[in-house]
Amino acid sequence: MHPTRKAAVTAAALLVMATASGCESGAGGAASQRSSATPGCPTALSRAKQAVKKAEAVNAPWRGPTTGPKAVHGKSVVYIAQTLTNPGVAGVARGVQEAAKIVGWQARTLNGEGTPEGLRAAFKRALRLKPDGIVISGFDPGVAAAEVKKANSEGIPLIGWHAAPAPGPSKDPKLFSNITSRVEDVAKISADWIIARSNGRAGVVLFTDATVPFAKRKSDLIKKELATCSGTKLLSYTNMPIPQVNRRSIGEVRSLLSRFGRKWTYSAAINDLYFQHAAPALRAAGKDGAGAPFNIGAGDGDPSAFQRVNGKEFQAATVPEPLSEQGWQIVDEFNRAFSDAPESGYVAPVHIATAANSGGALSWDSEGYRQAYRKIWGD
């Protein structure tokens, strides 16, 4: 507070100033970039800042499962990737390969190439391999409904990664479990970061992939949370399917810059990949990589995203999925399915990574997950 402020200032104004003065914590050291204007939503701003401070905390001790069935050896699993150009999907695939090797399983990755035809072809190929389990990674199982039904009829457990709106088991489609952080938490903290960092004054562009129900729901929830702050304006809700991002981003970004100019101060995207391809257009327009628009990826926190965040190159933050950890969780969930045990029920906590708290790392996972799972499996 400012003790010399004149008595004529009303109590309501003092309350607003007090809220604004508490904006420093948890904003990744970016105070110099914030708007100095009176915040447009003091209550929402205060709540957002508290949430962001908690999410930016560095320490993340393992809170996942510590008990479960011993490893069943000699199994095989097939990982069907929506597209391996999606770094999140590829990162989880590597985690599955790593964990499968520990328990002595065969793990094979098939690339769906980001098209319905490619995904159905990959699923048909997976079924021909007659694996013990199949992973549906990063795509709507409805794209391959007949193949999903056949896997169910043959008793092949299916585990999703970002394949359904919520974590845990699914009845329709039938999945033993769907591995993901809670989309509500990821969406809310992404929007809260924008509200907190902008001091409640932001012009936002939101990028989504409306072809994937999980992604569309995430962006809808980001939009909803942004709307809790009257000073935060959604300038554009831009749909770019992930497989098209590499060829469409430059044109879309140029168009957005032409339409909104300096009003565009913040961006959120359902996946970090958007900012990898937006960067060249922003750079060509003379934008500073450490300046506006300040970009946050609401998933997945792959190494290239961390590189952009750490280097302040057109991405200021990411809400990372613990990709390797989730690959290990997929193997653990399969082991539970093979052992006729229930799924673990574990959901990774939400986290925000910035240049100020990442320590230069290129990923984020809970501490001690490998040791925990190996102890469960008896390896």
Secondary structure: elements and pairs:
Elements: H1 11-21, H2 42-55, E1 76-81, H3 87-103, E2 106-111, H4 116-128, E3 133-137, H5 145-153, E4 158-161, E5 168-170, E6 175-179, H6 183-197, E7 202-208, H7 213-226, E8 232-239, H8 245-260, E9 266-269, H9 273-284, E10 294-297, H10 303-311, E11 317-318, H11 323-338, E12 353-354, H12 369-377
Parallel strand pairs: 1-2, 1-3, 3-4, 4-6, 7-8, 7-9, 9-10, 10-11
Antiparallel strand pairs: 5-6, 11-12
Helix pairs in contact: 1-2, 2-6, 3-11, 4-5, 6-7, 8-9, 11-12
What are its keywords?
379 residues; alpha/beta; six-stranded mixed beta sheet; 12 helices; 12 strands; 15% strand; disordered N terminus
Structural summary, described in words:
The protein has 379 residues and is of the alpha/beta class. The longest helix has 17 residues. β9, α9 and β10 form a beta-alpha-beta unit. The chain is built from twelve helices and twelve strands. The strands form two sheets. Strands 2-1-3-4-6-5 form a six-stranded mixed β-sheet, with helices on both faces. The relative contact order is 0.17. The radius of gyration is 22 Å and the shape is globular.
